[in-house]
């Protein structure tokens, strides 16, 4: 597993390029008789491998691309060397997330050996464009294709680095949604000395901003923080000091919990503008659906495996930004994210503890065994 991870690290798979990681991974999966498909989408390579023909579909989701290294001279060891020092392996992608791919492949080997006959289907779905612009998202495309033919991933384990201090201390069972908008408040331009002849969009926007800032969109729940509203940009003015501008532009974003939806937020937002008699144009952009895994099949198995292997219980949460899990969620899939420590991801000197990667592999193996019992 460690040598395999080193080989993956030595491939400079800067997003959105795979650069041959899939060749190594496919080789492993073919030895287990997985049916491997390469799907190229918008010049991005992706790997979808499946095994089995009966039962629920369990999928391991991940990515082989990595973020840029930053100044190489600042690294203690070259970022694409996979250099090992004591219990640490250094390298871009060790934690995010080639480490969990290596661990999962080993756990598959173990599971296939000890369970020659099992009652669910397994898929491995890997993209090389997770870190880049998600609008090129292959995962979204493959999910839409699956929905079109009535296929469905029932359970999904995402190998993103969710752990904080110890492997498995934190597991994501949800992620917040992200809804952005660009608003144009329309007024009437005119001479600043003739207030009766103008309609100042800055004043209209100010009234709206106060209301938007004070609105409680929801109170969150046990897993999610309350929905937050933020403004990132605001612009108005013609440049002339004696002219009231005709319009104002504003960019804003909701990070929202599962207590709200795209529809409720849009309705409430626009109701505030209408109540204030504001004339406006608006463009909404949903960049990520929230998800919360409520069903217990995968969640229970993951918690039990972590407890069994490590002796402690994980914190179940919905922290962090968005992940590719958001694309899978629209199939009604049970999603759990569990991977290495996130302490050094995207940083100089990204590394992983080798002993902890073995622990992760043991947890993954136990999850596969647990699913076999749970889905019997
Ligand atoms: Zn990642």
Throw out a few tags for this protein.
2 domains, alpha+beta, elongated, 25% strand, 376 residues, binds zinc ion, Aminopeptidase, Alpha-Beta Plaits
C-alpha Rg, in Å? 24 Å
State the share of residues found in helices, binned by percent.
25-40%
Based on Cα principal axes, name the global outline.
elongated
Please give the alpha-carbon distance between the first and last residues: 29 Å
% residues in beta strands: 15-25%
Note the run of SSEs as H and E.
Answer: HHEEEEEHEHEEEEEHEEEHEEHEHEEH
- Low-confidence spans: none
> What is the CATH architecture descriptor of the largest domain?
3-Layer(aba) Sandwich
**What is the CATH topology assignment of the largest domain?**
Aminopeptidase
Total DSSP E strands: 19
Q: Number of helical runs?
A: 9
User: Structural class, from helix and strand content?
Assistant: alpha+beta
How many distinct folded domains?
2
CATH class term of the largest domain: Alpha Beta
Write out the CATH superfamily name of the largest domain. Answer: Zn peptidases
Biggest β-sheet: count, sense, barrel? 6 strands, mixed
Unique bound compounds: zinc ion
User: Spatial order of the strands in the main sheet?
Assistant: 1-2-6-3-7-18
**Mean of all residue-level pLDDT scores:** 94
């Amino acid at each position: 597993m460690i040598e395999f991870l080193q080989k993956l690290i030595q491939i400079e798979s800067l997003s959105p390029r795979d650069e041959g990681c899939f060749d190594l991974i496919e080789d492993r999966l073919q030895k287990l008789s997985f049916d491997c498909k390469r799907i190229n989408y918008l010049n991005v390579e992706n790997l979808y491998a499946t095994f089995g023909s009966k039962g629920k579909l369990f999928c391991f989701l991940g990515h082989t691309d990595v973020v840029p290294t930053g100044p190489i001279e600042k690294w203690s060891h070259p970022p694409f060397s996979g250099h090992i020092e004591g219990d640490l392996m250094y390298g871009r992608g060790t934690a995010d997330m080639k480490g969990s791919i290596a661990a999962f492949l080993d756990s598959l080997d173990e599971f296939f050996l000890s369970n020659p006959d099992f009652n669910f289907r397994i898929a491995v779905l890997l993209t090389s464009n997770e870190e880049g612009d998600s609008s090129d998202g292959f995962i979204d495309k493959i999910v839409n294709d699956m929905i079109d033919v009535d296929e469905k991933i029932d359970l999904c384990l995402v190998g993103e680095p969710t752990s904080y201090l110890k492997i498995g201390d934190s597991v994501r069972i949800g992620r917040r949604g992200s809804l952005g908008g660009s608003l144009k408040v329309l007024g009437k331009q005119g001479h600043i000395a003739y207030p009766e002849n103008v309609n100042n969009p800055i004043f209209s926007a100010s009234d709206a901003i106060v209301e938007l800032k004070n609105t409680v969109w929801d109170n969150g729940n046990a897993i999610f923080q309350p929905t937050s509203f933020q403004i990132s940009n605001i612009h108005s003015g013609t440049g002339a000091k004696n002219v009231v501008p005709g319009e104002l532009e504003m960019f804003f974003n909701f990070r929202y919990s599962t207590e709200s939806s795209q529809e409720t937020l849009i309705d409430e937002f626009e109701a505030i503008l209408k109540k204030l008699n504001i004339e406006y144009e608006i463009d909404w952009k949903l960049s990520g659906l929230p998800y919360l895994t409520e069903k217990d099949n995968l969640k229970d198995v993951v918690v039990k495996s972590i407890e069994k292997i490590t002796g402690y219980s994980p914190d179940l949460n919905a922290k962090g930004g968005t992940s590719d899990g958001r694309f899978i969620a629209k199939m009604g899939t049970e999603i759990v994210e569990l991977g290495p420590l996130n302490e050094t991801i995207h940083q100089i000197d990204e590394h992983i503890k080798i002993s902890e990667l073995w622990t992760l592999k043991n947890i993954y193996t136990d999850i596969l065994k647990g699913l076999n019992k749970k889905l019997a």
